[in-house]
């Protein structure tokens, strides 16, 4: 089965090991892709754990799970990326994620910020 993140790799060799904690994301883009795949498979634990601790929405666990399960995820497109390589401490990934909700196709278009602390990448909604 191909990975949900549109990498053209198998899910078991792409995002799944990261989501299951068997390996860390090496780049901000890899974390972005794994977070998208985690939304598709509704893995809220990974979504929260990959969110920076200073801004982690722990009280929203149930609403995140309900929302993710109510959607049909369609595709992920990486538009651009800045920094976010293994040697960097921060990076940005601009993406579009298409999903269907209530019979209507919707798009999340975001330029996400990522920060690397203790050799681990985190999603951070804004600069920390």
**Which CATH architecture is right?**
Roll
Walk across the major sheet and give the strand order. 1-2-3-4
Number of domains: 1
Work out the helix count. Answer: 4
Q: Could you tell me how far the N terminus lies from the C terminus, measured between alpha carbons in angstroms?
A: 36 Å
Percent strand equals: 25-35%
What's the overall geometry?
Answer: globular
Helix content: 25-40%
Largest sheet: 4 strands, antiparallel
Number of strands: 4
CATH topology: Nuclear Transport Factor 2, Chain: A
Order of helices and strands: HHHHEEEE
Word description of this protein:
The chain has 128 residues and is an alpha+beta fold. The chain has one domain: Nuclear Transport Factor 2, Chain: A (Roll). It is built from four helices and four strands. The mean pLDDT is 95.
